[in-house]
Description:
By secondary structure, this protein is of the alpha/beta class. The chain contains eight helices and seven strands; from the N terminus they run αβαβαββαββααβαα.
Amino acid sequence: MLLDELKNYKIYLASKSPRRRELLKEMGMDYELLSTDVEESYDPSLTPAEVVQYLSKLKLSTLNMANYPANTIFIACDTIVVIDGQVIGKPHDNAEAVAMVRALSGRTHTVYSGLTVATSQRALVDYRATEVTFEKLSEEEIEYYVSTYKPLDKAGAYGVQEWIGYVGIKAIEGSFYNVMGLPTRLLWEMLKQVVKER
């Protein structure tokens, strides 16, 4: 089984996201955190799928992987929310968070996550997209969510695993965990490929 084979590897997760850390742990993997500070800017002509793949690769670009043992695996992920062709990032304050959730209310948007799984020899890069439909939320509900949960660290200003996900999401087409910020099934497939090719 893959989990047994992964015990022969040192796994590093390049992420500040507590959701990604939790999901990797729940997948049964032992890993260590890597701090990689990069400016997450990109060419605006890129498609959303290209943006998240580029940003996930960028998070590992500051590492000199040749300095790590050959049995080292690096994981990086980036997630964005897109509505009407516009990328919605993380809000800067509560007012911006309220405006973002209001824009998503009663509509369907797409969550893209780009994933890079790399070793010193090569890097696999892929992405997943998930459609999320919100019910129409009242101003009171939006204000309550933002003031109580303070989703300033989340793309689109919401966490699907929080209160707003329970009461506000009407439908999800695709991976739920992708909306949380880590396409877990895709990660599993990519890890299998890395282990098989070694």
